[in-house]
Amino acid sequence: MKIINRLSWLLRALLFILIFAFALMNTDAVKLHFFLGKTWEIPMILVLLLFFVFGAALGVLGCLSRLLGQRREIHRLERALRAGGDRTMPPPA
Asked: Is the pTM of this model over 0.85?
């Protein structure tokens, strides 16, 4: 089990180094054009980071309703189990 843990940390470190090297290669300024003639000039890596964070947050929000529904179902089943079990539920396999 220790070898898998060490291999996992090694892969994480390698991924971090690759992403860090990519960031160092993309420090050139880019100009973002917004509506009404507004512009914003920032390094490219910040643009990539902002879009990554925005995408991750959008993904979490997409999964949030399902996660909350599952948590409500777990709490309902735990209450039923503490109350003596639901006789309509089939026995566990």
From this structure: no
